[in-house]
Amino acid sequence: MSMLTERMKTWRHVFKLDPNRSLSESALEKVCTAGTDAVIVGGTDGITYENSRELIQRITEYPVQCVQEISVESAVVPGADGYLIPVVLNSSSHRWVVEAQHQAIRKYGDWIPWQDVAALGYVVLHRESKVARLTESRTEMESADLTAYARLAEFLFRMPALYVEYSGMYGEERMVRAARQGLEKSRLFYGGGISREEQAQVMSRAADTVVVGNLVYQDLEAALQSVRWVKETETNGASQDD
Questions:
Q1: Transmembrane region positions (predicted)?
Q2: CA–CA distance from 62 to each of 12, 82, 220 (Å)?
């Protein structure tokens, strides 16, 4: 089990920052010192080595875990605290399930710090989102399908976490709970559309880890408050560690 996998077990609230979007130094300082458990650097489009390195270097000036989510192999920045490898389980293209990962490992496998790497299984559910279009995700599904994806992630692929991703849209609690039903030890991430305390509380009860991204750029003060909204809410049926 990787060191990153162990650290992920403690994450309750995470900010996700996009290298292709601008954020002032004052705003970044507030984000990194708000009490979040980690900052994930990643995005869907416009991701380059240069903008990823710049953002990661800025974040590492603060006492917070900085993890890079790898969506473009040429944008990998050495020196992050860990690396998340997304696997889009409901993609209709095998590129986003295994091909891109295979090509990256073929090229860089001898230098990958495996102790700092973890796979993150995605189920993308917002049909109109950039990530759904890019990955050709099959977003129409029943709750039983999501439970099955969760079991696939944990029991077949042995992934440490499953991410239910609504990407810019607030999701359905019943679908998040359907994913919960399929998990025992793997961690359940939720991300998408949280802008109010009530929404954060609902998803905090359903999931182990809540990811806040777009809100940082839309309403910084609400984003900072989301740390408290999430951490003061107890989970219902969250994954239990060994």
A1: none
A2: 19, 16, 18
Q: Binding site for sn-glycerol 1-phosphate: which residues?
A: 16, 163-168, 193, 213-214
Cα diameter, the chain: 46
Contact 208, 188 (CB under 8 A): yes
**Bind-site residues for Mg(2+):** 18, 44
As to burial, measured by CB atoms within 10 angstroms (0-12 exposed, 13-18 middle, 19+ buried), residue 114 is: exposed
Task: Report pLDDT digits (tens) over 120-162.
Answer: 999 999 888 888 888 888 989 999 999 999 999 999 999 999 9
> How many C-beta neighbours within 10 Å does residue 50 have?
11
Predicted TM-score of the model (pTM): 0.92
Cβ-in-10-Å burial (0-12, 13-18, 19+) of 183 comes to buried
Residues 6 or more apart in contact with residue 94 via CB below 8 angstroms? none
Q: What span, in angstroms and rounded, lies between the C-alpha atoms of 103 and 101?
A: 5
Residues placed in the known binding site:
16, 18, 44, 163-168, 193, 213-214
Q: Where are the beta strands (DSSP E) in 112-194?
A: 117-124, 161-165, 187-191
In this structure, which amino acid lies at residue 110?
D
Cα separation, 99 vs 97, whole angstroms: 6
The residues, ordered by sequence, that sit 6+ positions from 163 with a Cβ below 8 Å of its Cβ are 86, 120, 121, 122, 123, 189, 190, 191, 211
